[in-house]
Design a protein that fits this description.
CATH topology: MetI-like fold
Number of helices: 12
CATH class: Mainly Alpha
Structural class: mainly alpha
Order of helices and strands: HHHHHHHHHHHH
Distance between the termini: 22 Å
CATH superfamily: MetI-like
CATH architecture: Orthogonal Bundle
Number of domains: 1
Radius of gyration: 23 Å
Number of strands: 0
Oligomer: single chain
Length: 271
């Protein structure tokens, strides 16, 4: 059977992939409901699914939860926006100037692997434990995701197109707009998608460790309230996971819209 006629997973099952994903989540929820009840997992540390959703229902009527959710979303969006704008701008400038790329290559490779959590003591001393402290962590971690992808995209520009633009004496701005950016855009979108998840992780981490108001701090408060509040901790974990899923779906939808002209995206669209 050729590749053109071999059925994919969705054709073999007859079930849409999104429905399969929902079925997988439902199966996982059933498993979490059963395992603590039969003693496979200690119930005092692993609450059942019904207990977790009961805690979620309690949070739904608690104004503190909605305030914390808004604080987390604000910190996440602001940090991600700063990281994306800085990563794209710096990546295009460095990538488009070979001398700058050579001068900064070692510095980027030295700074990029440093985990943001290792900077927490320094951030607390210099910036404090407010939202600005968590923003520093979010921006630092997310910035590299975008920068590295943009650098790869700029490096992938067709040399013939670059030389032709120079031969016609196009200015730097025109070269970036009409030659560099169309090639770098798919890479930049990938970097933004990666940075979205990283920014959310660091937002919650900063709230947990630094004490910045938000879901992370609310989670820490529930954790320190005793074993009776364990379902509340898991409820906040579930909310954080749902935010991540929604963010991933949103970025993928935006990617398909922005890159509708790209051959790779057009090939995935239904005929």
């Amino acid at each position: 059977m050729t590749n053109a006629t071999r059925p994919g997973p969705a054709r073999r099952t007859g079930i849409p992939p999104r429905l399969l994903g929902l079925l997988g989540l439902a199966g996982f929820a059933v498993l979490i409901e059963i395992l603590p009840r039969v003693g496979v997992l200690p119930a005092r540390y692993f609450p059942t699914t019904t207990a977790i959703f009961g805690a979620l229902a309690d949070y739904a009527g608690d104004s503190r939860f909605w305030t914390a959710l808004g604080q987390t979303l604000r910190t996440w969006v602001i940090g991600l926006t700063i990281a994306v704008l800085a990563g794209v701008a710096v990546g295009v400038v460095i990538g488009a100037v070979p001398v700058l790329r050579a001068l900064t290559a070692s510095t980027i490779e030295f700074l990029r692997p440093i985990p943001s959590v290792a900077l927490i003591p320094l951030v607390v001393v210099l910036v404090g434990s407010g939202m600005s402290g968590t923003l520093v962590l979010v921006v630092y971690a997310s910035f590299w995701q975008v920068l590295v992808q943009v650098l790869h995209g700029v490096a992938d520009v067709d040399p013939v197109a670059r030389d032709t633009a120079r031969a016609y004496h196009l200015g730097f701005g025109y070269r970036v707009r009409y030659v560099v950016w169309p090639t770098a855009l798919p890479y930049a979108v990938t970097g933004i998608r990666l940075a979205t998840a990283v920014a959310l992780i660091l937002t919650i981490t900063g709230e947990l460790t630094i004490g910045t108001p938000g879901l992370g701090k609310l989670m820490d408060t529930a954790y320190n309230s005793g074993l009776e509040a364990v379902p509340s901790v898991y409820a906040i974990v579930v909310v954080t996971g749902l935010i991540g899923v929604l963010a991933n779906n949103a970025t993928r939808a935006a990617e398909r819209y922005v890159l509708a002209w790209h051959p790779a995206v057009r090939a995935e669209l239904p005929a």
